[in-house]
Amino acid sequence: MSQRNIVPRLAASAALGGLLYGYDTAVINGATAVIKEHFHTGDAVLGLAVGSALITGCISALLSGRIADKVGRVPMMKIAAVCFLVCGIGCAFAPNIEILVAFRVFGGFAAGVASVVAPMYITEISPTRQRGVLGSLQQLGIVLGIFVSLLVNALLVHVSGGAGTMMGPMMTWQWMFLCMCVPALIYGVLAFTIPESPRYLVAQGRMDEAAGVLAKIDDAEIDVNGQLAAIRASLSADRKPSFRDLIGSNGRLKPVVLAAIGFMILNQFTGINVIFYYSNSLWSAVGFSEKDSFTITAITSLINIAATVIGMTIIDRVGRKPMLLAGSVGMVVAQGGLTVLFGTAPMVGGSPVLGPVSGPLALVCANLFVVAFGVTWGTTSWVMLSEMFPNTMRGAGMAVGTATQWLSNFVVTVSFPVLLGINVGLVYGLFAFFAFVSFFFALKCMHETKGVALEDMRA
Predict the structure, then answer these.
(1) What is the pTM of this model?
(2) Residue 288 falls inside a structural domain
């Protein structure tokens, strides 16, 4: 394979971890209602079933960066592939809610590993001028995984007639989980075909191997020896990276770490994952049929993919920070519209019911939010998180930032069913508030990383 296209192939292989991450976290969307009925659970237990993978993902993400610094990026991808495979099989055949939650937790471990290791690996093998577009393959993988899961769910429901209908030897919702085994197998096979990150190899003192990888992935005009020297100088070879690198001389977290934490909290608190975890239940609750709700969710996911592709085409030209600011404005407008529409809708049986005008308007606002987030915050989040840290801090820094993202996702996901039962307008009002805060956070706390070499990043 020519040198020109080997890096995109390697990045795409790693980004399959993102696809599985997206599939695993969103596949339960099509099964929430039937799981609640089938296992006779309440809203709180349902929220736990949906969010159980997220808290494990938080813990897994926190540990994965340091483990990847010890054993390598590629071995961690292989471990994640096996865990995704086991999760798909276990959830499909779970006899009760406790076993289902257990395997969701197991899948959360795999997703936590993939969410740290894949963007880290992609960033470390990418040339500076392509780091934005290649780094955003992680987000593209996630939104593709979400779309694939929702598409599979919709197709299965269309064929069988409902998520709780028997389809051969199993119910439809069980097939939804079992289908995850296919991309898990592909991911595992591809993980055996890609080389280790050169920056990890340098950190381990394996200079000849690192030189060999750099010779394959860098442009011909790049001085491999000079690149090796720059990487080695940036790694403080006198000791291994550790979580201590995140703390400054004053005993507090360094500014770049605080920025990453705030960045990933706001990334979730604007409400993006509610669209894909609970949209079927939400649209059904406000008057749409089950099949229409599946179709709406699948279309929204497709829009999310298109938005991500648009973001990928402009991120290395426009820069990261301008995209964040523009995205915050769009999210405020969209979530503000949903706040008004749901907050003023008439209540029937304790739930708001959208009319012939407000219903389509709500769909427009929801998809406008997806576009605003997908083009900007969605595309830039994994890119910036993986490139904003110096080489000595990347593993630990990404672990903390990604764990924060998982924890924030868990808080939103578990609390949403309860808040939904109180007041839908209030929920979207909170999302609009955090979107408003995100503008000023990006303005004051996020620094542009476009065109900056990884070896030149500062804490």
Answers:
(1) 0.78
(2) yes
